[in-house]
Design goal:
With about 80 residues, the protein is an alpha+beta fold. The chain contains one helix and five strands; from the N terminus they run βββββα. Strand 2 and strand 3 form a beta hairpin. The radius of gyration is 12 Å and the shape is globular.
């Protein structure tokens, strides 16, 4: 799973929430949503508990600064239609 992939949580307290993949390996993915799960406190979930989509968010903002929680919230809001 690629970094920046938009996923839905399929299990747990955050079931149905939209998140973005920050890192992944063979069994786990590190996720953030910019609100409850920030870049400083990402969620580690098993891959079987998330549903990937075909959408990617931009992990590098245009102005060259580091990615922030506000950037993630803005892009996920546009994706989820909330």
């Amino acid at each position: 799973m690629k970094n920046g992939t938009v996923v839905f949580s399929k299990a747990g307290r955050d079931k149905g929430n939209v998140m973005v993949v920050l890192e992944s390996d063979d069994k786990f993915a590190t996720l953030a949503d910019g609100k409850l799960r920030t870049l400083e406190r990402p969620k580690k979930k098993k891959l079987k508990h998330i549903q990937p989509t075909n959408f990617q968010i931009q992990m590098q903002p245009e102005c060259g600064r580091a990615l922030q929680d506000a950037d993630i919230r803005k892009q996920l809001k546009n994706f989820s239609g909330r």
